[in-house]
Design goal:
Structural class: mainly alpha
Largest sheet: 3 strands, antiparallel
Number of strands: 5
Number of helices: 17
Strand content: 5-15%
Oligomer: single chain
Shape: elongated
Distance between the termini: 58 Å
Strand order of the largest sheet: 1-2-5
Length: 372
């Protein structure tokens, strides 16, 4: 259980979902991390090392699975540095080797002593069984924390050749025991995990994982679960079609439990976008005013300016569109909209300046088009 403290930062899973009523800061040492969040990985885990994937790698190790005591602090004393950067490399290797020999006899190694010491004069177990490995961050390598036999890529089993049949997609599975959760809570968490995982995919996988997310989240909603994260997630999925359903879910999410800023801005934008498209200017403006307080996004300011203009507040519209132009100065449409507003306000200098900028951007776009 003490590894939960380490896992808060050193567990980088494929998807991570907070339990209902929990926030990132709720965790307390001594409690299982799965009482606060559930982490997921594909059921065909990649061997690719992640910068913060040490705990997941350890959990996949047979040494960990067959031990009652192996944990992060078995090798890493939080109160004493044993890293080569802090102590001589020979001492660090010996310290780590001594941990291996608490369970494994030297003769248990598949290589004899002569072969081992030829490759590693210090007979360093970790050099073979926890080798430095390239990570998901370019040019960064970390010690692989899946303790085992790591074959070079040339010796690794070849992947099965793809078939002409419909591709099979790996499913997300929880890294921790989730039996303490009810079925509806497990479905909620898994649905939200698929929703988090889906944007990182490509091709047919996007639609597959999005469909799995919708099936699970609509299921728990049909069972009576009302949860802001579920509503906000479904609102994002339905944003393009059907928009009325997306707006309904976004409104429900905003009325429910407090949402973190990122989820709240997603819900606000979905609601604002639907209201904008249906020319419900007051509703769109209200949502956008809240959104611009949470994030600095040019589209929020641009839409807010157009709402204000539609309601007759042209000075306010100019201020909002100027903010959009500050954030994204190369958006020709914003300058054209500003030119029209300045002209209607009788501010000829401002209108001329915006027309010139719009013309420069138009010429630039034409030149780029000719180059292509």
């Amino acid at each position: 259980m003490n590894e939960a403290i380490c896992a808060r930062c050193h567990l980088s899973s494929d998807a991570s979902v907070l339990l209902r009523g929990r926030s990132v800061g709720d965790f307390r040492p001594g409690h299982p991390l799965s009482d606060y969040r559930i982490d997921y990985r594909l059921d065909r885990p990649s061997s690719r090392m992640k910068v913060a994937g040490h705990v997941e790698q350890m959990w996949l190790s047979r040494c960990y699975q067959q031990s009652d005591s192996l944990t992060c602090t078995t090798c890493h004393n939080p109160h004493a540095a044993v890293l080569p950067a802090a102590v001589p490399a020979e001492r660090a290797a010996a310290e780590y080797r001594s941990k291996c020999l608490e369970c494994h006899a030297p003769a248990a190694c598949g290589l004899d002593v002569a072969a081992r010491t030829k490759a590693e004069p210090g007979d360093n177990c970790a050099a073979c069984h926890m080798p430095p490995t390239q990570t998901d961050v370019p040019h960064a390598a970390f010690t692989h924390h899946r303790i085992g036999i790591h074959r070079p890529a040339a010796e690794a089993p070849a992947a099965e050749a793809p078939t002409d049949d419909e591709p099979e997609f790996a499913e997300l599975t929880p890294l921790a025991d989730v039996s303490h959760l009810s079925e509806i809570e497990r479905d909620r968490c898994l649905g939200l995990a698929y929703l988090e995982f889906e944007p990182e995919q490509s091709g047919p996988a996007i639609e597959h994982y999005r469909r799995r997310a919708v099936e699970l989240l609509e299921k728990v909603r049909a069972q009576g679960l009302r949860d802001a994260y579920v509503d906000a997630g479904l609102a994002r999925v339905y944003w393009s079609s059907p928009p009325p359903r997306a707006a309904q879910l976004a409104a429900a999410a905003l009325q429910d439990d407090p949402l973190p800023p990122d989820e709240r801005t997603h819900a606000l934008f979905v609601l604002a976008d639907f209201s904008f498209r249906t020319q419900q200017w007051a509703a769109a403006r209200s949502a956008l005013v809240q959104s611009v307080r949470l994030r600095r996004h040019p589209l929020d300011w641009q839409m807010l300016g157009l709402c204000q203009a539609a309601q007759g507040d042209e000075p306010g519209a100019i201020q909002s569109l100027e903010r959009a132009a500050e954030i994204i100065p190369y958006d020709r449409a914003v300058h054209e909209q500003l030119a029209r507003l300045y002209a209607r306000q009788g501010q000829t200098d401002g209108a001329d300046r915006q027309r010139q900028l719009a013309k420069l951007l138009e010429d630039f776009e034409k030149d780029r088009g000719q180059e292509k």
